Amino acid sequence: MKWDVISMKSIYLSLLFGFTVTCLPAQTVREYQPYLFVFYNLENLFDTKDDPETKDDERTPQGRYRWSEKKYLTKLHAIADALMKLGKQKEQMPSLIGLAEIENRKVLEDLTTLTDLSAYNYKIIQFDSPDERGIDVALLYQPDHFIVNNSVPARQLMHNEYGYIDETRDQLVVTGYLSGTLLAIVVVHWPSRSGGRQRSNAMRNQAAFRTSGIVDSLRLRHDQIPVIVTGDFNDNPKDNSLAVISVCDKVRAQKSDKLYNLMCALYNKGIGSIGYRDQWHLFDQFLVSHNMITGSGDFLYWKAGVFNDMSLQQSAGRYRSYPKRSYSGGRFTAGYSDHFPIYMFLLKPVSGEPDVVRNTQQDQ
Questions:
Q1: Does an H or E element contain 27, and which?
Q2: 8 A C-beta contact, residue 103 and residue 45
Q3: HEC states along 109-138?
């Protein structure tokens, strides 16, 4: 359902969210407003037209997948359906949606106007990147909740194992005001494991250092700004590339310049967002700055999760419980994506004096 920032009921942490709130000199209960942030890798959301500048031939009517207008529209509605189901379960539609594997702005315009998402007036931030397949990252946002201050693509000049430049997706850097407070968002899609994990490690490490530099630059320009990095990292939370920019321990995150990885607890439980060779991987992640875990800033994170609803899963066969993708074994299955969407809640205080807040809620 569509909800209004001003009219939505405030939520008491001590009653619903399991938070411990300590305030000096006397204890009070503080009201917080929740905002839902989603990231979703859409697995090759291409239109049907051939772009002569990119390698998109497989996703055309004459290509390998016989990518027709009917299949394209089916996928658009499937993606919208997944987001609507997530919003219904969480009792609010996302204020912010990070996306990966989208071909261009047109597919986002179609997604936000030709499907049930049209009711929410999502606006688009997207830039064409030099990726050879033409896929980009993007951010959708509800303008009633988020006002854009600045958005830029951060170009990466990646060098492969032979020393040649390998063009990949830009990293999207957005600053804006969520409910009146400045927030920084970085949406990424780090290089894939094509050719094998070990062979491609160096590329993701390069991407990690680029992301780290972006975060440092944001902090220099905007002191104490809350920062969220999200996307498909093509590595798990405890892999070396993620260690460049994030940590899994809250105490270490508060004492260092690295971000706190919200997905570590989920990964430790064996929860994944993508299945490959009989193993779950949690490539899709949220990383947040330390001021979002201490309660000392303008935003506090509540929890993060993987939206692995049964309706988004393969229901039978060898890949039962895996994400139900658009193609399986070369056959169009009218599915969603080979990734599950992930989500996190941001909380912003709406009343009361600043408190010291300790988050005791486990990520789910």
A1: none
A2: yes
A3: HHHHHCCHHHHHCCEEEECCCCCCCCCEEE
pTM: 0.89
Strands 327-328, 356-358: parallel, antiparallel or unpaired by DSSP? unpaired
Per-residue pLDDT in tens (0 to 9) along the chain, 364 residues: 333 333 334 444 433 444 433 333 444 566 889 999 999 999 999 999 999 999 999 999 999 999 999 999 999 999 999 999 999 999 999 999 999 999 999 999 999 999 999 999 999 999 999 999 999 999 999 999 999 999 999 998 777 767 777 788 999 999 999 999 999 999 999 998 876 777 789 899 999 999 999 999 999 999 889 999 999 999 999 999 999 999 999 999 988 889 999 999 999 999 999 998 889 999 999 999 999 998 777 899 999 999 999 999 999 888 899 999 999 888 999 999 999 999 999 999 886 444 433 343 444 4
Mutual orientation of helices 69-90 and 105-113 as an angle, nearest 10°?
60
Nearest to 187 by CA among 231, 126, 128: 231
The 3-class secondary structure across 68-100, one letter per residue, is CHHHHHHHHHHHHHHHHHHHHHHCCCCCEEEEE
DSSP 179: T
Nearest Cα neighbor of 229 from 217, 212, 248 is 212
E strands in 103-208: 123-126, 136-141, 146-154, 157-159, 165-167, 171-178, 181-189
Rg (CA), the chain: 20
